DNA sequence: CTGAAAGCGCTTACAG
DNA sequence: CTGAAAGCGCTTACAG
């Protein structure tokens, strides 16, 4: 006999009951219990017995032991959530919330791990996750970028969140920044703006290129000629303030599409200094919907929200689809002429939602 | 024989090797392998054999199967991280990062779960976590408050993060808001301020009472009489702006201690409207260190940072101490005259760090 | 110093 | 329709 009371606080908890206990109580074998509780009893167990087993399990408060099940079946219903760094922005943590919610609904649980962009740590954590026999991996980035999937993940179901696999092979969920740029610019055009500044980023991340492309497409669709002079790319820490001033002093636009909310604050500041009325004299729109900023700016900033929650949610859905039906997903990812997903292959850009407030002239 | 190839992408991965494989390769029994790999081989296995086993394990790239170990030992080295809602502020997610880092260092892994303050969901998730046989629970709140521990957690090692157990029985880690109020006020006093406004919160959360208490203590320590007129408690959404104006128009202080960074923005705004120079005419300090705010405010705001990372880190440390040595921790928690922790019992307030910037007159 | 055996809780062919 | 048995990978008394 093994030590009956390991010195742990947990021992005070009520004892966990197993299918063996139920079998004894219901007067059947454990395999009958297993069959019934897994709903595999059709044509195998009499209705009466099945009913009795279910009631017994219910009344005894039976909860299956996931660990034992995992050992036996090699399916853990656990997903590894790997992130470089969570919560740099208030919204980034929402991808974890979305992922967690989807996982719960699908009967999965999330094991989360931060790596802080340290490749060695990342490998170490992936190994740890494997020891726990996770069924698949979410590889979540802090912001939309091209990612190199760690070789350690090879062969395991994986989906990239807020990033794009460099080879466009691994399913990737990310914000549709081109569409966001289009929608933002188009919103300004709908408000009657003719001379729209793109107040962008001089750092060349994906979002910058895509949003700018969306800006140009919206202009083109509206028949407004593109003017290089209206593009002002800035860096937050250096020239954002001076360039914002130049926007008003030299360019004098009727609409401004800001790369993000932080940049919008520079536009607000410059407008205030010049007594230009945002929402009255000039329309402003941006992207991010950072609560701390939108709370404070007046007039309230109209902006697009990145689909963080949705990315997490969708990623888990796709991952579980791969796990539950690997063969189908595999062939899907391989065939170029697949019917579903034909356009983007395994890539899933998600649209951003516009949050209407008061910074656009109506 | 069971189906050799379940249709899962994971099957492409290299096969997992077990102690059985090592035993065969090294020509010993599996129990010898187990003993050696768990470092329980002293006086039980010859050095030569032990060495051979280790080398074999190494060369075969053996990783123990946590699931099998858990089933056998009832110890999962997994912790349940329960949170009401992650990432409302950029910093809140840092508690998860801190917890995760501590967990990794101690050989544990985190299963995270969000409940969105839904009590029923919470119970459901706790049950799920139990099915995975977590060794203990972190019960993390979004902000410092008194918490009622769910009955479902009873009997399991648990520590509260960013909250205080209402019964002061369950170990709780939270920011030392009284000390933060003291440190902030004292910083102003050190800068020569004599007439210090407390620009606080009219919502009575813990932090408000504590920071105000710290404010009064710092005043008392410095021999500055407390003046009720200098206390201005506001609500962000309603009277913050008008009251900030009143601070300058009627009270005319030389120092202002703001409850948080968001409130500081109202003070900045009011000062600007009146051409009062922050950092030159009046000193301002606050609490939160919200990057999005401190990035934008000029002059840069001196503020105290809440120890989010540290709370997560410390909580995991205490939880693991309970798990590894339950008996000791139990007696500790019960004895009123314990030597360690005598002062606060199971409560651990953590000090906030001051981030010096340019809003205090030097 | 080393190995055979039991068992953690479950699932799954297989035999009846 | 139901049960006995094997086995997932590990640990741990126990016997030698």
Provide a descriptive summary of the structure in words:
Chains A, B: Residues 17-73 form the HTH lacI-type domain. Chains A, B: GO terms for molecular function: DNA-binding transcription factor activity; transcription cis-regulatory region binding. 2 copies of one chain form a homodimer. Chain A is of the alpha/beta class and 362 residues long. Chain A has 3 domains: 15-64, lambda repressor-like DNA-binding domains (434 Repressor (Amino-terminal Domain), Orthogonal Bundle); 78-175 and 308-351, Response regulator (Rossmann fold, 3-Layer(aba) Sandwich); 177-306, Response regulator (Rossmann fold, 3-Layer(aba) Sandwich). Chain A has helices at 19-26, 30-37, 47-60, 66-73, 93-105, 119-131, 177-190, 206-221, 240-251, 261-273, 291-294, 308-324, 326-334, and strands spanning 78-83, 109-114, 136-147, 158-165, 172-175, 196-201, 231-234, 255-258, 283-288, 302-305, 347-350, 353-355. In chain A, strands 2-1-3-4-5-11 form a 6-stranded parallel β-sheet, sandwiched between helices. The longest helix of chain A is centred in the last third of the chain and has 17 residues, at 308-324. At the A-B interface, helix 4, helix 5, strand 2, helix 6 and helix 13 of A face helix 4, helix 5, strand 2, helix 6 and helix 11 of B. Chain A binds a DNA duplex (16 and 16 nucleotides) through helix 2 and helix 4.
């Amino acid at each position: 006999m093994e030590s009956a009371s390991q010195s742990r606080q947990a021992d005070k908890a009520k004892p966990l009951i197993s299918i063996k206990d139920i079998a004894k109580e219901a007067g059947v074998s454990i395999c009958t219990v297993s069959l019934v509780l897994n709903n595999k009893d059709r044509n195998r167990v009499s209705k009466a017995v099945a009913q009795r087993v279910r009631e017994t399990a219910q009344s005894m408060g039976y909860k299956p032991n996931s660990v034992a099940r995992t050992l036996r079946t090699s399916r853990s219903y656990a997903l590894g959530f790997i992130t470089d760094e969570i919560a740099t922005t208030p919204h980034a943590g929402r991808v974890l919330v979305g992922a967690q919610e989807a996982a719960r609904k699908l009967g999965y649980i999330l094991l989360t791990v931060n790596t802080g962009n340290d490749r060695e740590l990342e490998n170490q954590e992936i190994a740890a996750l494997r020891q726990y026999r996770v069924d698949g991996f979410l590889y979540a980035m802090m912001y939309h970028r091209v990612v190199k999937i760690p070789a350690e993940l090879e062969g395991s179901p994986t989906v990239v969140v807020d990033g794009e696999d460099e080879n466009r092979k691994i399913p990737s969920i990310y914000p549709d920044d081109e569409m966001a740029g289009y929608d933002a610019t188009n919103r300004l055009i709908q408000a009657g703006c003719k001379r729209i500044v793109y107040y962008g980023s001089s750092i060349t991340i994906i979002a910058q290129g895509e949003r700018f492309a969306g800006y140009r497409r919206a202009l083109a669709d509206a028949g407004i000629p593109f003017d290089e002079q209206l593009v002002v790319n800035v860096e937050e820490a250096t020239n954002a303030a001076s360039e914002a001033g130049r926007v008003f002093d030299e360019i004098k636009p009727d609409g401004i599409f800001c790369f993000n909310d932080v940049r919008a604050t520079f536009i607000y500041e410059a407008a205030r200094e010049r007594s230009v009325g945002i929402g009255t004299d000039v329309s402003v729109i941006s992207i991010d919907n950072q609560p701390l900023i939108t709370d404070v700016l007046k007039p309230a900033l109209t902006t697009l929200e990145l689909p963080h929650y949705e990315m997490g949610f969708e990623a888990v859905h796709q991952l579980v689809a791969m796990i539950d039906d690997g063969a189908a997903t595999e062939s899907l990812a391989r065939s170029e002429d697949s019917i579903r997903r034909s356009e983007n292959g395994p890539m899933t850009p998600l649209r951003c939602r516009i949050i209407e407030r008061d910074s656009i002239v109506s």
